[in-house]
Specification:
This protein is an all-alpha fold. It has a domain at 2-58. It contains 3 helices and no strands.
């Protein structure tokens, strides 16, 4: 579950990451593309958890976790009004 939250945060709140965090993520992605190995190491998992924890505690007034009211999955963006399950909530 934390990988989905991590992906959501880095896609939508990249600007809140520290420069060293951004550089590590970029280098990790480049390395994974080169080797075609997308498995997460124990270090990667701890890194993601620390980023999630830091961002949510430091920027809790800025970050909006946009969950679907039906399936509970994260939408793609903070302003999205539809979910992977197909539910649309423009009227809410």
């Amino acid at each position: 579950m934390s990988s989905k939250i991590f992906d959501y945060l880095i896609k939508n709140y990249w600007n809140l990451l520290e420069v060293l965090e951004q550089e590590y993520i970029i280098s990790k992605i480049k390395s994974q593309k080169k080797t075609n190995d997308f498995t997460l190491t124990e270090f990667d998992i701890k890194f993601e958890e620390k980023i999630i924890s830091r961002l949510l505690s430091t920027y809790n007034e800025i970050i909006y976790m946009n969950y679907c009211p039906v399936c509970g999955e994260l939408a793609r963006t903070p302003k999205a009004k539809s979910a992977i399950c197909g539910h649309i909530w423009h009227d809410i």
